[in-house]
Amino acid sequence: MLAAADVPDLAMKAPAVITAANHFLSEDTAYLKAEDRMFLAAAFKFSEAAHRGQSRQSGEPYISHPLAVATILTSWHLDAQALAAALLHDVMEDSGITKLELTEKFGKHVAELVDGMSKIDKLEFQSKEVAQAENFRKMLLAMARDLRVILIKLADRLHNMRTMDAMRADKQKRIARETMEIYAPIANRIGLNAVYLELDDLSFKYLYPHRYDVLSKALKAARGNRREVVTKILEGLRTKLADSGLEASVSGREKNLYSIYRKMQEKHLSFSEVLDIYGFRVIVKDVSSCYLAIGALHALYKPIPGKFKDYIAIPKANGYQSLHTTLFGPYGIPIEIQIRTQDMHRIADAGVASHWMYKSGDDGFSEVQQKTHQWLQSLLELQSESGDAVEFLEHIKVDLFPDQVYVFTPKGKILSMPAGATCVDFAYAVHTDIGNRCIAAKINHELVPLRSRLKSGDQVEIVTAAHAKPNPSWLTFVTTGKARSHIRHFLKTMRFEESVHLGERLLAQAFATLHTQFKPLGEEVWDRYLKESSARTREEVLADIGLGQRLAVVVAKRLLQLSGQWQDEVPGSGGRKMTSVTIRGTEGMAIQFARCCAPIPGDPIIGLVKKDQGLVIHTHDCPQISGRGRIDADKFIDVEWDPESNRLFDVPVRVLTENARGALAQITSAIAEAEANIVSVVTQHAESEGDRFMHIQFVLQVANRAHLARVMRSLRQLPVVFRIQRMRGNEKV
User: Fold this and answer.
1) Which residues cross the membrane (predicted)?
2) 3-state SS record for 205-224
3) How far apart are CA 323 and CA 177, in angstroms?
4) Residue-by-residue DSSP string for 128-196
5) Residue 19: pLDDT over 50
6) Can you state the percent helix, strand and coil of the chain, rounding each to 5?
7) What is the per-residue pLDDT for 263?
8) 283 beta partners
9) CA angle 462-464-466, nearest 5°?
């Protein structure tokens, strides 16, 4: 117990805090040993001294906050180390106490927990968004090492949300939005249902205060009006279960305000139309009784089709188990019922915290912890793939969606996926290599597009190929953070490698242009250049050149200067001789073909180095580059087609044809005979020519300019074709 002499400053200014601390040390922590409570008393005194003179915005001494956080944690029966860390969780950030000092006084584990909780706001970031993302990443990585970190963090956030009234409205909204987007879903994901619901309601209160007030008053009125109905339903449920020989505890539960508001928003309902604001919970002794109870209740009231869910056979990802059903109750009111055992109820209420609350000799709740650890390990994998903290946070937000679908592998294993997941998401969930090499998918033994969305009960099979690789278009439809992260990582790696190869070619061209008698550069020249340019490796410099972030001619000139080979003019050269980069058309993402002019082999071309896009190839007469010569002269690169190029290129063509039956068939047949592919076709009336004619706009695939000329010649010979032209510049296709 604490005496006034232990904390004299607090005794004088806030005796109520000492009373609360003594209650914490005696009543709230009664489940701990005496020596543990002495350890916590020492942690309280240390924290009070560290925060002495600091106040919350409400005017209370700051120590009242860590004490309240630790008190929340006692409801989950957390151990003395976690409670000490809660009491000390802000001392490193606010008081300059080091991790080493905490280790010496309270041990390594407490210091690690406090460090995992410590914010990193003192570091400089480009924006608040980056700071928040980095802070969140640090917390999740600490959480992966020790689950108690997230329990302390959630208790910290819960107390902050309960005491935000003294803050400015803009700060209230910012914290509430972050809570609703991140912390409430995490609480849901690890099974802390009560915390999840309270965080949602508190966030709703500060984000939409007027709506919260109106809805809360309406709910109080409805509570009085419906008390009689609820009592009648409760009696009916209890009588039916007793008549069926089942021992059961039946209770009513009111839905939280935010879930009611969300239902009104999603289904465009008024409050009076939301009938199921009450639910009922039935707790029985064992699993078989759960199924007997559902049968008995379905005999009492008719079930609503499609509303029965069996989370006992297939638990949720956070370990939650229950039977859910919705029945047509008296007066047409829908009744939502959850049926579960006492053990399931404990997990549903406390999730991963049930490991500490209900420890037993056989450690019966370790499966919940195991599932949470698996999720945290997937977060570690995500963060290693993500390029930065903001991208990592984006991936995590996707994976915190509460709704789940449950699908089967061909071998009958059940996988839990977020609602909206596609076949590609499933492939990455099975294994990264499966995702990277998938080419097709089957749902319930039928071939489907890879973008197909999965439904609970689907059996999914992925078809792979050894040389397949992720497609950038997958990013437009995948929903899981893991899939998005792996696709982006693969594409970044591939783009980096291709940019390095292009950078080598551009640098070689620059050397040939600047110095005809060039000698190979030694390692020491490159080392000197890397030091002065702040680049880490030669490959990084070459990739920057390929991506247009460094100019090849500037890098080449500096390398020649460092090697002693630079001369302002090469004697007898008659000026610089420009060499060309050869374009094969198969370079990948590092070289792009401009859409504005759609160059094809045979067209006179020029390259323009654009930042973050690499080398963009235009035709010489492209309207997009006319007039840029003086401004961007150093960004233009001489390029020429490789005569051996063997890929097909897209080219837009417009045909003016007679609006007659069979005209389109004749034209497409002629294109096929000329060995060209059709990518797309758009038809429209030629308004200036009258109803007798129409324009057909094709995107054709041809090998080169000669091939295109052959296609156009064969089309001109058709009687139904009056005019054909290749589209250029800003013309719409």
Assistant:
1) none
2) HHHCHHHHHHHHHHHHHHHH
3) 32
4) HHHHHHHHHHHHHHHHHH-THHHHHHHHHHHHHHHT-TTS-HHHHHHHHHHIIIIIHHHHHHTT-HHHH
5) yes
6) 50, 15, 30
7) 82
8) 249, 340
9) 165
**Residue 380 is assigned to a structural domain of this protein:** no
d(CA 444, CA 461): 8
Strand-pair partners of 464: 438
In 285-357, the DSSP E strands lie at 309-310, 323-328, 334-341
Residues 59 and 204 in one domain: yes
pLDDT of 363 reads: 46
Residue 150: pLDDT band by 50, 70, 90 thresholds? confident
Q: Distance between alpha carbon 210 and the CA centroid of its chain, in Å? A: 31
Give φ, ψ of 10 to 5 degrees: -70, -40
Strand runs (DSSP E) across 314-399, as ranges? 323-328, 334-341
The pLDDT-based confidence of 288 (bands split at 50, 70, 90) is very high
Residue 544 token pair:
């920057």
For residue 552, what is the enclosing H or E element? helix 552-563
Q: Is 80 exceeded by the pLDDT of residue 632?
A: no
Radius of gyration of the chain (CA): 34
- Indicate the SS3 state at residue 561: helix
- Catalytic residue numbers read 93-94
d(CA 255, CA 39): 40
Which of 357, 384, 413 is a domain's end point? Answer: 357
Task: Report d(CA 290, CA 246) in Å as an integer.
Answer: 10
Confidence of residue 733 (pLDDT cuts 50, 70, 90): very low
CA distance 424 to 437: 10
Residue 383 lies inside a defined structural domain of this protein? no
C-beta separation of 114 from 88 below 8 A: yes
Least trusted range by pLDDT, from 73-77, 302-306, 415-419, 516-520 = 516-520
Flag whether pLDDT at 721 surpasses 50.
Answer: yes
Q: Can you give the pTM of this predicted structure?
A: 0.56
- Write the burial class of residue 89 (CB in 10 Å: 0-12 exposed, 13-18 middle, 19+ buried): buried
What is the per-residue pLDDT across 419-467, written as a single tens digit (0 to 9) for each?
A: 789 999 999 989 989 999 999 999 988 899 999 999 877 889 999 988 8
The residue segments making up the domain with residue 453 are 403-479
- Identify the pLDDT of residue 410: 87
For residue range 671-717, list pLDDT tens digits in order.
Answer: 999 999 998 898 887 665 556 788 899 999 999 999 999 999 999 99
Q: Is 362 a member of any domain?
A: no
Sign of CA dihedral 235, 240, 241, 243: positive
More confident residue, 543 or 627: 543
420 with 501, same domain?
no
**Are 478 and 422 spatial neighbours (Cβ–Cβ below 8 Å)?**
yes
SS3 per-residue string spanning 187-208: HHHCCCHHHHHHHHHHHHHHHC
* CATH number reported for the structural domain that contains residue 197 in this entry: 1.10.3210.10
Cα–Cα distance between 389 and 134 in angstroms, integer?
A: 5
Of all residues in the chain, the percent with pLDDT exceeding 70 is 79
Domain tally, the chain: 5
Q: Which residues pair with 463 in a beta bridge?
A: 440
